[in-house]
């Protein structure tokens, strides 16, 4: 029945991964851990798995791999624990909100030669992946400018905002990773401007809800990112890449593609309104890639280094907002 | 200043052609005739032309060509008159509602060697023309099936319906010509079904407001036409051609191409709501082609024969509705 | 674990349904039958089910329902057999190629009060279903004209053509059902024209590969259907409905929605090239509806009567091609 | 025949304006001036106008207005000359490359109470204007983020680059004006990053060919601009505005809107490849607005102040590239 996987954390994203594991050939959902035993039990039951305390999972020699879906402040400790236990590790982003802590953690991972994959699910979206494939096939020549539009249907609750590390570490971090994935060149400097336009409460918590970020690479390529915590028309997720011989774009996705024509005009339905329905295929492909990396002994991608670099970009963006200037990655 | 053109009829379509003539290099609007002297005067003044009675236009040796925009029941007589006068003739469709009268008229035109071009403006629409060009360049292989969707924003007034010759001779006639233009093969048989779904008044006048027509060529190619006298969303004018190696479509046109995204969805504005704004470019290109035919002594297209054949298709459609069967063109 | 379902026939469509059953809450793939034991075994193994002869399935009191995916000429017999056995039945279309046999079979089903659902999967496509929902919500007013474009990427092999009953019974039958589903009014007459434009071999077998069909309802609504066995650009499946206050369309579907811009123009990828990937969601929703009908004791839709009516339309179309006239359903 | 207009400069843009004047009701092309008499004569002949030296135009009491289409370094002097002569003035952007010179010139204009309109033609594009109209009608709520994509099909020749004032004053200046037009709020700071990715020759001339600019307003709204001197797919001119209750976008324009479907996919033709065909309607509407301002004694828009502010934004952008920081408009 393939490799045995434990899921740590039976919340929203834990459920997504549990389902993906169950549907992946060569993998088996073996155990579920959660601080709330009922949540663990419900999820385990759904797929015929057992529940187990985290220590039990790490001690269980049957377990090949874990998927870490617990709160952010536990990620680094759990990665180290399971690296010591010799398990392959998939961890939701970010590894930690502190760059220092992330570096220490990755040091441990490296020393132990552990397999660590980071949950930048958007790399596995078939539309975004097709954009990257087209670039690699040389269909647009040399990449020159990337535009990422990434807006949420609505803001998360204040409780979440408070522990999220702020918009750059929580939301833009996906776009930072996507920029790196598409530019295929390391970023030299970051400029960011950020405002509170959506909800004053977010401002009171010291965070922003609207941001525009410009990345510049060493060779002078640009990437601009547009973020908002409120898009009335749905989950706005688009990518455009302009190159020397053409351009390629991935369009927004909607649950049904119909068009209603009336005297008001031609109306298409709103976009997906939730990341889970928007990225259903991406979550499945991501877990399949993790399983494939373990089974075929391949280096997983995105890895811990990718997590570190995206977080460094978030740090630079924060510094840029404060200092109103482009911040070099060498300053972080 | 190029060839001198007289416009006969200063109504809606006369104005369109007068403007087109004035804007065409190598042509000059020379005279305007209309049963209503004020209408003629107003149009003539706008472009610095004179007014003249029809006989004056035909007798004036300065006049090279006429554009006939008078009511349908005068077309055949005027064509013959100006053919005798040696003028090049552009005539709005149809030549006459009676096939016999059309044939007699074309006989005269042929005997006199007169230049006669018919006003099937849609052949000159840049989008439809690009479809035809792509076919001729072999981009879709052999043409197999044509679909024409042609719907008016609203029905004409009862007065007009009564003298129009009915939906097939008035409205579908454009689609019949377009079918011939795109199939590039003569049509063997016609099947039509027609209903009164829009306005019972139209039914009382013995006409229909909704029709579906299927044309079949000798080699077995098909064309379907969908007509309605009411499209709440604007002037619906689309063409699709399916071939052995691909398909090509001309899309609907709208005055502005913007898209509004809200919680209701993504809304584009309605289409053009009037044939004059929809076919502005086509009317200009049509007159330019007429002038070009005269100046360069080329056979004009579409010509009288095209007018005859489209009318014969309308006759066949009427017979098909009555007899509920496919009617061969050899029966007409 | 819910109702126990046997799948009869482990071929292409049997696999699709086996997967759908396994993924449907409240259902369990219990047994697989196939004339080729290896095929049955392979499919059964994949989902932890057993293999069984058809008689064993009908005799097994654990079995609640069967899904018939065997060749067409066995459908009617199997429906009757399992109706007698008291099982709920889902059968792929068509029930039989003979109208008489279908009527006899449905008679038996009715007498025995058996649950029978027909495999018109397209009713469950989310895009087509959204079109129907919009109609029912009155968003386009009264339905007036339906246009169905339905083209296969390529023709089936000659062996299949020979037993398929011909293009109208094999391919158009889906469109006939869709027309009925969208018009929500019974069809009064059928006109069809059909040709061999794709492959002369198909003509030699007495079948057609290109067809245009026009349906007219009692109240004068129209539906046109365009069929081809060859669409180089993929599986072309579109629906448009024009009504008194608007129109609604379901667009084609493609695996990835990206757009490449170069000096050649703007290129989107081809459509799905296979009905299984195009209708993945529809197949899942169809089985879910079957399970729901059984569990909640609801009348299934589409049912045997729908299968009969679609087949009658195919008969009428064949007669129309032969007689070159509109054929009334009362003649069938 | 309406107001009499002199066109100064019979080059590319002079021809566009001459045609627009001739087609505008209430205006007449009266005289054409050019340093090359043949060029002036040819253009004058085309519309039945006279040729005249610049001094003759300014002295001619018949002349009501002038349209300045001469090289940039003559703009300010000509504006002052014709302001003194009491003529209404339309001037192509920019007034001058030096902010100081522009301010002095506008001072003179103001003192003399002259009518001065600036040639920011894009405000008159029907699609962009519809975006602005929708914003003013409140259809997207409060404007929050503007994205302008503005790419030329190809770079101008080195000779032009040298006198152009650089990419920000020559190309981005249109986008700066558009940003102000859409944000409806003055801009507080500018960040720009610029590179040479297209043509090293441009770099040798001290200019850039690729730029990304971020504008921030006092209230924290953002605008990002993406510029390139090379778009293989045509003249890429798009606008998106995201607001509190929705978003609105103006799409790219192409000469023909057809779609070719083959086994390669679905192909739409490239965009317009030239600003004159892309903005045909805008040029006509712009001159109509100028004539309307004169005839109806309205303040023209955009005016000299708009020209000054767009130029100041270009200065700020240049400073930002040099200093790698956001530059306040109060620093310029």
UniProtKB/TrEMBL annotation, chains A, B, C, D:
This is Myo-inositol 2-dehydrogenase. Belongs to the Gfo/Idh/MocA family. Keywords: Oxidoreductase. Pfam families: GFO_IDH_MocA (PF01408), GFO_IDH_MocA_C3 (PF22725). Residues 128-248 form the GFO/IDH/MocA-like oxidoreductase domain. Residues 3-120 form the Gfo/Idh/MocA-like oxidoreductase N-terminal domain. InterPro entries: Gfo/Idh/MocA-like_OxRdtase_N (IPR000683), GFO_IDH_MocA-like_dom (IPR055170), Myo_inos_IolG (IPR030827), NAD(P)-bd_dom_sf (IPR036291). The keyword Oxidoreductase applies.
